[in-house]
Amino acid sequence: MSRRYLVWALCYAAAGMALGIYMAASHNHGELVTHAHVLLVGFVLSLVYGIIHRLWLEAPRRAIALTQFVLHQAAAIAMLTGLFLLYGGKASEATLAPLLGIGSSGVLLGMLLMLYMVLRPGTAPAIQTSPTDKAAF
User: How far apart are CA 71 and CA 117, in angstroms?
Assistant: First the structure.
């Protein structure tokens, strides 16, 4: 799962950078909010989720992990599409409100599922302590 998140994170990074370059070249910074969300919700959050999977989740339930992954990606794409259309002047806020609401709620639900996987007993590796660690406390 960590590799999937890494690939998606890098795709979001490329899209965010391309949007930033477009805004700089066109001197039109109307998509600044979209640009920030692509990089934060898309790139950074996907990268963090990948790191969490790699370093902290030893054996997450496959169904929950896959649901969380698909939910995050679908919600992020919905949110980013809505923001792109809104700040690009392609559709009104009233038209896009349901899409943006669903996308935002989905991203939050994905975060809550990740929190559940991190806190669920049996998914995180056991903490290894050495005798020197105990002496420090």
Answer: 14
Single out the residue of 69, 67, 72 nearest to residue 104, CA to CA: 72
- Three-state SS annotation for 25-87: HHCCCCCHHHHHHHHHHHHHHHHHHHHHHHHCCCCCCHHHHHHHHHHHHHHHHHHHHHHHHHH
Q: How far apart are CA 41 and CA 31, in angstroms?
A: 15
Length in residues, the chain: 137
| One pLDDT digit (tens) per residue for the chain, 137 residues | 889 999 999 999 999 999 999 999 999 999 999 999 999 999 999 999 999 999 988 888 899 999 999 999 999 999 999 999 999 999 999 999 999 999 999 999 999 999 999 998 766 565 555 656 555 54
Cα–Cα distance for residue pair 56/5, rounded to 1 Å: 14
